[in-house]
Amino acid sequence: MFENLNERLERSFQILKGQGKITEINVAETLKDVRRALLDADVNFKIAKSFTNTVKEKALGQDVLTALKPNQVMVKIVHDELAELMGGTHVDINTQGKPAVILIAGLQGSGKTTFSGKLANLLKTKRSMNPLLVACDVYRPAAIDQLHVLGEQIGVPVYSDKENKNPVKIAKAAIKEAKANGNDLVIVDTAGRLAIDEEMMNEIEAVKKSIDPTETLFVVDSMTGQDAVNTAKEFNDRLNFDGVVLTKLDGDTRGGAALSIRSVVNKPIKFVGTGEKMEALDVFHPERMADRILGMGDIVSLVERA
Amino acid sequence: AKTKESVFKKLSRAVVGKSTVDDDVLDELEEVLITSDVGVDTTLKIIERIEERVAQDKFLGTSELNRILKEEIAALLEENNKGDYDAYQLPKSEYPYVIMVVGVNGVGKTTTIGKLAHQFKNAGKKVMLGAADTFRAAAVDQLIIWSERVGVPVVNQGMGADPASVAFETLTKAKEEGSDVVIIDTAGRLHNKINLMNELSKIKRVMDRVIPGAPNEILLILDGSTGQNAFEQAKQFTKATEVNALAITKLDGTAKGGVVIGVSDQFKVPVKYIGIGEGMEDLQVFNRNEFVASLFD
Ligand SMILES: Nc1nc2c(ncn2[C@@H]2O[C@H](COP(=O)(O)OP(=O)(O)OP(=O)(O)O)[C@@H](O)[C@H]2O)c(=O)[nH]1
Ligand SMILES: Nc1nc2c(ncn2[C@@H]2O[C@H](COP(=O)(O)OP(=O)(O)OP(=O)(O)O)[C@@H](O)[C@H]2O)c(=O)[nH]1
Ligand SMILES: [Mg+2]
Ligand SMILES: [Mg+2]
């Protein structure tokens, strides 16, 4: 899918090469290729369109600095714009509170349960916190067992109640238990749900309301396509979440969904999942993500050769 | 959101009495296709076909246009989806029909296996499951719960066991007990992890030793909300295991799953099933025309 990016840009940069000023005409081909690269990376259609428009406005009429060629100016504009859209700097997770309560939400199979374990592990080892994991997925077969297995792996207790089918009650009881046991952090894993599933969205809204979390995190699979905007928007409308977790970045997806979500809900991406193991969690690097989406590594090396 | 009418209407209006479809219409069509995850290449291919058809017939009416659009998109799926599936019927054989289910993490492999087992059982088949995901936390428990729900046997060697050994035991047992169909669950794996992909090839080879030609079907599960990465998934899983059937899950959501058009076209693999929910009944045999129509819903 992406093999041709280099070729395409090479071709379009040929046009820009050696021209003194960026004009509507000489930039058109490059913009088309940038848009194409964004769409291939699963950036939402509308966002790709508005992004290329912004880039065009910034580029038009720019005098090419003596040291730079027009193509380099373009690359710089594209890169800076993308990095800015990705959020500029890293935003930390808030773990203040007695206890701090983190609510985890997202679509089916996005990686919520795995991330819950990873986050507990990270905050336990790096911030010496004393977490309690809470199993609020009462639907998926073996969801509770899954969280128990992860808890055991990382040496973190797990609160669950297999008799109880009410996530609100489970979450409340867990927080009570955390207070009694002196846990300073509670991480609430919830069932996967579709944004259009009214009943399930009501449920998570109710969970949020009842436990008033310090942070609500939206977990999303980095391989997600065009639908990422719809889902993120719906979840945000319902939950007003504080941050995004991007999972499965150890794959070879460009991860354009990250850009789409960022533009649509304007919430920071706080963590990225980079594997199935409990240690495979990273803080988010906006610059790296920007580079990845546009295959910037390819583009930069191309310009250096030019 | 765009409705079926609006796309077709705009397309029609612009075409009447002209020899080409105008840019507005093509832009509209492009947006519909791209936002359905059809991808740039396949979208261009479809648009070219439409342009050709329109150029051939200058007096195209509204209804024909509607039909042509669907036809041209469906055509990309057609070659690989000839004839409708005789759902849950199996070729006659002295051996059980073996299905190995593969895919990246969290796409819905285990759930699809539960649903398939249910359908095969309803069709009067003797089913056996094999719990060869011995890696993901509580994966074996999850399949056991499904097997109990459906009421079919499952072979497991617990967590951490060698998946090839689980597959071996499952096939041996299925042969002994005269099962009609065996479905093997495997751990989710990202297609860029060479060791994990090699493991799949190994599991497959071991099956062939118990039952010649097994697995008969290698079913790649694609998450309907996945974007263009599905191409790479199809490519790498096909390379490692010769995938010969696809299932698309989670189509009960708002994602359209359009990437499968290009995937099916490029890899010549038929789409057999779609997943439309988390329950036992939420599996359908893929219907090309319904799928194409749903892109414009
Ligand atoms: N390679 C990789 N796999 C991951 C990552 N995060 C999660 N997974 C895998 O993705 C699959 C789904 O993860 P879960 O944590 O069960 O997802 P979930 O959102 O809790 O799923 P539901 O509860 O069913 O909605 C599992 O196979 C995980 O091991 C990641 O960052 N990289
Ligand atoms: N809405 C919806 N959810 C589905 C569908 N198919 C599976 N799921 C859900 O997706 C999540 C992941 O499904 P699994 O069957 O565990 O996926 P898997 O591919 O076996 O996951 P790993 O073994 O961890 O790689 C679960 O919460 C399922 O209930 C579907 O068609 N629609
Ligand atoms: Mg879960
Ligand atoms: Mg599974």
Describe this structure in words.
The complex is a heterodimer of chains A (about 300) and B (about 300). Chain A is α/β, with parallel strands linked by helices and about 300 residues long. Chain A has 12 helices and 8 strands. Helix content of chain A is about 50%, strand content about 15%. Chain A starts with a helix and ends with a helix. The termini of chain B are close together. Chain B contains 11 helices and 8 strands. An 8-stranded mixed beta sheet of chain B has the order 3-2-4-1-5-6-7-8, with helices on both faces. The model of chain B has no long low-confidence stretch (mean pLDDT about 90). Chain B is elongated. Chain B is an alpha/beta fold. Chains A and B meet through helix 2, helix 6 and helix 9 of A and helix 2, helix 6 and helix 9 of B. One magnesium ion binds next to helix 5 of chain B.
Distance between the termini of chain B: 9 Å
SSE arrangement of chain B, N to C: HHHHEHEHEHEHEHEHEEH
Instruction: Please state the structural category of chain A.
Output: alpha/beta
Number of strands of chain B: 8
Mean pLDDT of chain A: 88
Q: From N to C, what is the helix and strand string of chain A?
A: HHHHEHEHEHEHEHEHEEHH
* Basic shape of chain B: elongated
Could you give a short account of the major beta sheet of chain B?
8 strands, mixed
Beta-strand residue percentage of chain A: 5-15%
Strand order of the largest sheet of chain A: 3-2-4-1-5-6-7-8
What is the strand tally of chain A?
Answer: 8
Low-confidence stretches of chain B: none
Give keywords:
heterodimer; A: 306 residues; 52% helix; B: 297 residues; alpha/beta; eight-stranded mixed sheet; 11 helices; binds guanosine-5'-triphosphate; binds magnesium ion
In short:
The complex is a heterodimer of chains A (306) and B (297). With 306 residues, chain A is of the alpha/beta class. Chain A contains 12 helices and 8 strands.
What's the topology here?
The complex is a heterodimer of chains A (306) and B (297).
Chain A: H1 4-16, H2 24-40, H3 45-59, H4 70-85, E1 100-106, H5 112-127, E2 131-136, H6 143-154, E3 158-159, H7 167-181, E4 185-190, H8 198-211, E5 215-221, H9 228-239, E6 243-247, H10 256-265, E7 269-273, E8 281-283, H11 286-294, H12 296-305
Parallel strand pairs in A: 1-4, 1-5, 2-3, 2-4, 5-6, 6-7
Antiparallel strand pairs in A: 7-8
Helix pairs in contact in A: 1-2, 2-3, 3-4, 4-11, 4-12, 5-6, 7-8, 9-10
Chain B: H1 4-15, H2 23-35, H3 40-56, H4 62-78, E1 97-102, H5 109-122, E2 127-132, H6 139-150, E3 154-155, H7 163-177, E4 181-186, H8 194-210, E5 217-223, H9 229-241, E6 245-249, H10 259-267, E7 271-275, E8 283-285, H11 288-295
Parallel strand pairs in B: 1-4, 1-5, 2-3, 2-4, 5-6, 6-7
Antiparallel strand pairs in B: 7-8
